[in-house]
Design goal:
The structure is a single chain. The protein is mainly beta. It has one domain: 6 Propeller (Neuraminidase). The protein has a four-stranded antiparallel β-sheet with strand order 1-24-23-22, with no helix packed on it. Strand 22 and strand 23 form a beta hairpin. The longest helix has 4 residues. The N and C termini lie far apart (about 50 Å).
Length: about 300
């Protein structure tokens, strides 16, 4: 297995000339809009799309569609002073091992992701993925370190960081069951992780709203799915409980796979990934997040 070597291995200068924040896009409306296919749909799977707070940074995971050929890696690009964008390059906290499922705190201060890289003091990669994190410094990012909850290394995937600094993530109770956990920040550490939503068949990819009003999670092979994988939403109720999951339906879910949910730092745009196994087509989309509010249950 190898890591990404250079941007020219996957991307060339023959890309769309649009410039300006948010990769040169206008904000989407009520129908999903494909996000920079000249960069994100070039034969590779580019997913877990993450914008910085001002729309002048963009991070994502990328992998060969054939998992036997390559592992997932983390890439990023930024807007130059003239409004143009750099081509994607390897993120400074990427490793030679499998790295994916990244998220950014709404204020841009932290990035968390999951990785199979060796833990500190070890030389062999992990059999289970652990959560890792970096802090923004005056120049770049801190050295990566594993997330610890109540002093213990945290194993799981698809973390999400809320505006309060609380971290949410998905973990498996069994090969067929997923649970969403929440751990509140306490200085540089996190308190013990608490399960808040569980018993989801083949659940996994998730995100949390910046204000923690709702979370979105991908579920696979369940009776209410429209396709093989669909996105579901759960709203936090006034008493602090979480409402039952609801299928997002139109215009998000289709007869193919939808996963990798993400929200913009202000919570106003919703990003996700579509994959068609039959055609191998893979695209990242975004849409106005107001389409999610129609499903909010009455308190």
């Amino acid at each position: 297995m190898k890591s990404i070597r250079a941007r020219d291995e996957f991307w060339t200068d023959d890309v769309d000339a649009r410039s300006g924040p948010w990769l040169g896009h206008d904000f989407p409306g009520q129908e999903p809009v494909e996000l920079r296919p000249d960069i994100l749909a070039t034969g590779r799977h580019s997913f877990c799309t993450v914008f910085g707070p001002q729309g002048d940074e963009f991070y994502f995971a990328t992998a060969d569609p054939d998992p036997e050929k390559d592992m997932a890696h983390l890439a990023w690009m930024k807007m130059n002073e003239d409004g143009s964008w750099t081509l994607p390059v390897v993120a400074p906290f990427n490793s030679e091992w499998n790295d994916n499922d990244l998220c950014m705190a709404p204020d841009g201060s932290r990035i968390a992701w999951r990785s199979w890289r060796p833990l500190p003091g070890q030389s062999k990669p992990q059999e289970r993925s652990a959560l890792w994190i970096v802090d923004r410094k005056s120049e770049g990012w801190s050295e990566p370190r594993p997330v610890t909850c109540d002093g213990e290394v945290t194993y799981g995937g698809y973390p999400g960081i809320s505006r309060s600094g609380t971290i949410y993530f998905a973990g498996r109770r069994s090969p067929r069951e997923c649970c969403v956990y929440r751990a509140r920040r306490n200085g540089e550490q996190y308190e013990a992780a608490v399960p808040i939503l569980g018993d989801m068949q083949f659940g996994g990819d998730m995100c949390i709203a910046p204000d923690e009003r709702f979370l979105i999670i991908a579920c696979w092979e369940v009776p209410t799915n429209r396709g093989e994988g669909d996105l579901y939403i759960s709203f936090r109720m006034q008493d602090g409980s979480w409402a039952p999951l609801q299928n997002l339906g139109d215009p998000i879910n289709t007869e193919i796979i939808e996963n990798c949910p993400m929200l913009s730092p202000n919570g106003r745009q919703f990003l996700f990934f579509r994959y068609d196994r039959a055609t191998k087509a893979a695209h990242s989309y975004w849409v106005d997040a107001s389409v999610l509010e129609r499903l909010r249950p009455k308190q």
